[in-house]
Write a structure and sequence with these properties.
three-stranded mixed β-sheet; membrane; alpha+beta; single chain; 60% helix; Alpha-Beta Plaits; Cation_efflux_CTD; Cation_efflux_CTD_sf; transport; 3 strands
Amino acid sequence: MVTSFLQVILQSFQRLVEGSSEPVNLSVVILSLLGLNILVKFLLWAWCRTMKDSSSVQALAQDHLNDVIFNIFSTFFPVAGQYLGLWWLDAFGAIVLSIYIIAEWTGTCLYNIRRLTGQAATAADIQQLTYMTYRFSNLIQLIDTVRAYYVGEGLFAEIDIVLPPDTPLSQAHDLGESLQSALERLDTVERAFVHVDYNAVHAIEHRHI
């Protein structure tokens, strides 16, 4: 897609340099079809926007919105250029629209790359996980560590908590399991891992890479 719009930019620059223009002949039928296409794409965008849990559907929503914007302005620029006597407006509009579409899809691509390569959770995500853990049980004496990173659209969260040393194993296990289930009910969390300890003074448990 980026390559095709780069080609549009090159051709538009060529038209600007050469000073060439093409007559615009938009009949009522063509304008009606364009209007229908814009309406359908807008309705599809509105429908896809309601499915926020699916990154694939959100990508479709962005595609539909881009089509709406592109179709509106790709009709406006040549018509306005012809009626205003500005021969360069069509080519200029094509360049602007192409840059917009390239920027939109580049941003989406970079966003997904970050999410798929283990981007660290935001401060707000960490605060939410910490607060929920802190309020979960009076037995939790200390929250030792809270880590979270993205694996796709969801977070993998690791929580280290400290319980009293005399807590029975069965009770410690059940508390950790319940906290894990509660964290995984959050919309942003894909998986949660709760580690239970009896003190916060210990060697680093994981090898640094």
